Amino acid sequence: MQQEVSIVKRGFKCLRCQHEWVPFNINQEPSVCPSCKSPYWNVQRKRGFGRLDIKNFENKIINGDVLDILSKIPNDSVHLAITSPPYNVGKNYDSHNDKMNYQEYLDWLENVWLETQRVLVKGGRFCLNIAPTGIKDFVPIHHDFTNQLRRLGMKFRTEIIWYKQTMLKRTAWGSWKSPANPHIVPSWEYVLIFSKDGDKLEGNYKDADITAQEFKDFSDGFWKIQPERQRNGHPAPFPEDLIYRLVKFYSYKGNRVLDMFGGTGTVAAVSHKTGRNFIHIDVSKEYCETAKRRLEKIKIEMSQTKIN
Predict the structure, then answer these.
(1) Domain holding 2: CATH number?
(2) What is the model's pTM?
(3) Domain end: 51, 70, 88, which one?
(4) How many Å apart are CA 125 and CA 128, to the nearest integer?
(5) Which CATH number goes with the domain that contains 138?
């Protein structure tokens, strides 16, 4: 893979203390900032260093660290980002610590949001699926993410209520039939919508492939969609219908769609089916292998459909 021609300056910069340095081995990723000892996710390659051509990422299932891979994607190259990050509630991911200190978790993701903002084109959208966590110890994580992204300069456009219809198995009532300490159990999740540097995403009207009925239905922000039942080894995969609506509503055919916590490949799969280009990143080798098999199966099915 060839580096972009426009390398500005070699080195690294700590996002926490702003220290800049050039290591002895420029190709070795630093584990900590040498000044404040901040961990690697607060360390970023200086703007312009190590960016690769977008074709190195387009329609690829990429296994690697999210910040390492994002740092190599060129500026202003992605039209739509859709993701759901690890919720930090102790889920069993095979290559990720899902039980960080909460501030450490927020700091890590703020740097992911910063890189996401950088790679989005003007008017590009970021669809962030998240839900408040805990019942007894309620954590308004959706508010914290919203505040982070607004501080970074992303425009908060709207929020979609994904009503999951999962109350039939409810067991956590709190104080049953009493106002002493009853529990509200969220039967929904949020999809928070942000845009970069303006409202309008430029594109060819002929490449807008959403139907009139879909546009009417999807513009109502209360989406009744059942959770995905086929998990393929992942604790919380997206249902395809959720991603289909976001892709069709917020992008044109031929656009690039990024999922930086790609899991088992739902965003990649739906993007491919709808004529978009995808960038899939995940730290789990197992999930990436599952995503590759899923994409190969879809490609075979689509080619057979064309023949018939």
Answers:
(1) 2.20.28
(2) 0.79
(3) 51
(4) 10
(5) 3.40.50.150
For residue 214, the 8-state DSSP code is: H
User: Which pair of tokens denotes residue 196?
Assistant: 């970069």
Q: Which residues pair with 174 in a beta bridge?
A: 182
The one-letter amino acid code at 265 reads G
- Rounded Cα gap, residues 30 and 45, in angstroms: 10
Task: Give per-residue pLDDT as tens, 131-153.
Answer: 876 666 778 889 999 999 999 99
Do 156 and 259 belong together in one domain? Answer: yes
Other beta carbons within 10 angstroms of residue 80's beta carbon come to: 25
Task: Say if residue 142 is in the same domain as residue 215.
Answer: yes
Domain residues for the domain of 86 are: 53-307
Secondary-structure breakdown of the chain: helix, strand, coil percentages, each rounded to the nearest 5: 30, 20, 45
Q: How far apart, in whole angstroms, are the C-alpha atoms of residue 263 and residue 83?
A: 9
Mark whether 43 and 189 lie in a shared domain: no
Alpha helices in the chain (DSSP H): 66-70, 102-119, 141-151, 212-218, 240-250, 266-273, 285-307
Task: Give me 41's structure tokens.
Answer: 């996710």
Residues 34-46: what's their mean pLDDT?
A: 63
